[in-house]
Amino acid sequence: MSKAARGFLQTLTADQKAEVVHSLSDSLRFDWHFVPRDRAGLNLKRMTQPQRKAAMKMIEVVMSDQGFQQVEQIIDLEHVLRVLESRPPNDTRRDPENYAFLIFGDPASKNPWGWRVEGHHISLHFTIIDGHVSFTPGFLGSNPGHVLIDVPQKGVRVQGKEEDLGFQLLASFTEDQKKKIVLGAKSPYEIFSLNKRQVEGMDKLEGLAMKDMTPPQQELFKQLLTLYLNRYHITLKNQQMAQLEKAGLGNLHFAWIGNTTLKMGKNEGHYYRIQGPTLLIEFDNTQNDANHIHTVVRDLTDDFGEDLLKLHYEKAHQPKK
């Protein structure tokens, strides 16, 4: 990751570096969102081809093949939105080139540093502290969730597996189990964690714990969980799994709100989440007649690497023996 970041910086001019590089303590690091907006940093539109290649390499290094493909497909959906909304080719609201890169700190040093790539429906954050990588928040969305119009991308469901497996897991539960799992009939308009620096108001574990599921249900639940972690490089996935196992996989809960039957092309809003002491995963498909998906992975103990950074700085200021 450090090599890829340094390689990207080497392609930039002095003025571009001034836009891209900020202090790790800069509050800009926590100013994140997944909606179309003007973004700090250097976006793809203002990069040369070698710079774009080096920027995308940064993403490729930290994601799995599956995750990197999703990122590319989400960017490509901006072309679909231009057609859906009858926007001109030079439109800047639905813009496949408005994905911006920021680096916080110095990737060539041994000090903590981090970086972010962000644009419509993509907000990926990585913080490196003493060899440990925090890779949350990690937001990926897709609009349309299912491309139905006559374009080259017709039929694409970037997050179809996340949706289908969620419904498959829900269908495996008995009616008594669903009484615990289904929290309401109307899906929320948006994920509950939103774009906040820290997850708030979600301290209560709701739904059904994995330890209370049957073995086949637990297997489906694990498949859904790992589908989200498989977006990332295997080292990062294994790091998160080790943390979850330490906290107790059985303590992870599954909860659902909204429509409980998948009806392709004429769906109704639905939402689910996986939540435990250390992890929150949210899936929401409510907007645009339930054809607009938002998903996020949050680390409830170490988003943005904040807890690890605190520990790092506390150790740095301890008196030497």
Automatic annotation (TrEMBL):
Pfam families: DUF3500. InterPro entries: DUF3500. It comes from the Bacteria. This is DUF3500 domain-containing protein. It comes from Arundinibacter roseus.
